[in-house]
Amino acid sequence: MRMKHKKMTGALLAAIMAASLLAGCSSNGTNHNNSGAEPGAAASPSATAGEKNEAPVEITWGIHFQAAGVVENSEVQKWLEQKFNVKIKPVKVTDASIASGEVPDIFMLGDPANVSAYQNQGVLSSIDPSMLKEKMPEYYADIEKNSKLFQTVTFNNELWAIPMFIDEKKPYDLGMLWRKDWLTNVGIAKTPESLEEFEQAVYAFAEKDPDQNGQKDTYGLTGTATSTWSSGFYSVFGAFGVEPTMWHERGGEIVNGSVLPETKEALAKLRQWYADGVIDPEFITDTQDSYRKKLYNGRIGVIEEQIAKAALPESATITEMKSLNPEAELAFAKNPVGPGGSGSWNWGVKSNFVVFGSKVADQPEKLEKLFEILRAQSSDEETINMTSLGVKGTHWDFAESGAASGATKFLAGFEKQEQRDQQGIRLFSLGNITMQAYREKYSNPALHEAIQTYSDSPSWTDALLFSALPSDGKYKADLTSLMQKYFAQIISGEIPLEDFDKFVTEWKARGGDELTKEANEMYQAQFKN
Amino acid sequence: MKTIRKHGELLALFLFAFLFFFVFKYGPLYGVLIAFKDFRVVDGIWGSPWVGLQHFIDLFQNSDFYRLLKNTLLLNLYLLLFAFPAPIVLALLLNEVRSRYFQRFIQTTMYLPHFVSWVIMSGLVIYFLSPTSGIVGEIAGWFGQEPVFYMGKKEYFRPIVVVSAILKDLGWGSIIYFAALAGINPEMQESAIIDGANRWQRMLKINIPSIMPTIAIMFILSLGGFLSANFEQIINLLNPVTTETGDVIDTYVYRVGLQQFQYSYTAAIGLFKSLVGLLLILGANLAVRKLSKGESGLW
């Protein structure tokens, strides 16, 4: 019986290996290496490392989740291996690789919800906060100011991730990016500030032929109902003081932004705009990918965009627009102010999370090493620069020649993220684990000023800092899809506005009430000052 | 021992097939166990606790389940009614074309869409059907019709899926029928011509009956995947407005299961689908055997 069982596992393992090999190949076509294979090698190698002190510790490292694929033995990897006397095995983390039991020693997750899901699967190792304080004193001093972030990844009274933080006002806060030349063409001198002015402008874009080609082929704005809920309309909901799916605090109570009376008012407005031909009907099929293209192609006149991508003349979206349509003029502005204030979808101070694989718990010398590297990634300028920027003079330099601080730029041949990935830059970078002092030294003063000008932070962010509720796994995806369905139909006039009340009833019955109860409990226990 | 030596080569050949099926089909069946367990990655398949039929009970009690089942069944029924016969009709018609070059040309061009992924294909479909820039709306405009936003109306979703499925796989699906038609003994055709049968009569009396066994087998096989509607196609065409009619079991599994580590629950759904598929295959095979008086069918 035993033998049989073992054989079966063997066969299964072979199958999984083959499958992950295939998955690896297809997902990172540009790289000759693949990530998922060789689960055997991922198993603990510590037995050898413990015997001799000088033998390097082997670390399986889950590369940055935005990187397309593993690049083995990159320059940065060799540099890290030498500096810290370790042997690094970079792997790409996917849900499938985790499910087959290959858990890297260290990797990054984006949301408390991910941390919660991984923790439920038992693949994470808990982290002793006092050890964090002892091993990374500089970082701890910084993160303590945002200590609520610890609550978002504390389950069963244990900490499961090292939270990273970002300033309340940050480069990826959203504002409005207008077609300045269109505004001029329809006789509007200044970029809209209030919701009324916003409304006038988008109506004019739809009706007054802003591109002056004599055809009615333009719209005010669009949304992305199919991919996420729903960039394009965040600022409009924000003007009514709500963001659907977020938890808001209203007089000590935690309520969900999907089902508030203000949400209905915002929907009524959007519905009116749709009926009057101001919203591109294709908002239903538009995705994150096609959103900016609509602006580039002169089909819509305003989008929601991150400050870092649109506020400065050299920002990505501005330069892209210029290269596609040199005549177009763009202007960045704040979110419209409506009856409920102003603001857009805002991630708050939360950044990504660093987690340790469950096997690390039994390997103190490995844990020690990981903390050593983390501390360097947080407070050692050389290590931070090497992992996130590369070699100065080869891969990057300060934007101002000869400067010793301020904005940085990548040098020719390394401007694209994919080119840098080949050198290993970013693969092992943990982003916002750097301490405050480093960030200040390397910040771009112009961008910093733009952020102060345009950011509406903290409007509107999640009252629970995007924590995962115990029953989120059970209900959340379903409730979000229910919300998307109703909202898209209400805006496009498929169903009457009054059906919003039906939606609220359905939302509550299908798990919303339970989540609201949990959200309030969590708020009372962990977030209330 | 003697037999082993005697049929050594045959056995060696069989071994490949056996290994393939054992490693990729029968081995992983062990994993089906997780449908009856509460699977956690650390505990592994065997170590996770048993929960009996809990996941199946959850599934049948889910208020969405019947909508999903209905959508899945209806969509597949339409596909069976329209998309299944389409390649047969194409093969029969092209078989009557006299110019061999024209025939080959049509065949080859019709294979092409099969190699385009659904991500791209659905992008094209959405673009063609766009009320403002799509070619379909444009053509409707010539006849004074107001353009319709097909992708934004839930009642059009199933027809769109069926039509786009036909467009994509029509040529590819017809290959096997071409092969079957090519296998018909030309003497039958010749004697029919001498007897004065016209093309229509020959098609009805010779071509169709000759490829009937192929059709029957393809029919049975397609029933096996009856509940596994084209996931790739649907997930790429689906949008919030059309979930009412377009959300099927597979898209639901993707949404709630794989995105949230609910492996056990989704394995239970998969097992349920396979069970329905198996019953349909058995039923269809029985029916085919009855109708053909035991001459046709898988076994």
TrEMBL record, chain A:
InterPro entries: Bact_solute-bd_prot1. Residues 1-23 form the signal peptide. Keywords: Signal. Residues 32-53 are annotated as: Disordered. Transmembrane segments: none annotated. The keyword Nucleotidyltransferase does not apply. Residues 35-50 have a biased composition (Low complexity). PANTHER family: ARABINOSE-BINDING PROTEIN-RELATED (PTHR43649), POLYGALACTURONAN_RHAMNOGALACTURONAN-BINDING PROTEIN YTCQ (PTHR43649:SF33). This is Extracellular solute-binding protein. It comes from Paenibacillus soyae.
TrEMBL record, chain B:
GO terms for cellular component: plasma membrane. It is found in: Cell membrane. It is a multi-pass membrane protein. InterPro entries: MetI-like, MetI-like_sf, UgpAE/MalFG_permease. Its main location: membrane. One of its GO terms (biological process) is transmembrane transport. Keywords: Cell membrane, Membrane, Transmembrane, Transmembrane helix, Transport. CDD domains: TM_PBP2. The keyword Magnesium does not apply. Belongs to the binding-protein-dependent transport system permease family. This is ABC transporter permease subunit. It comes from Paenibacillus soyae. The lineage of its organism: Bacteria, Bacillati, Bacillota, Bacilli, Bacillales.
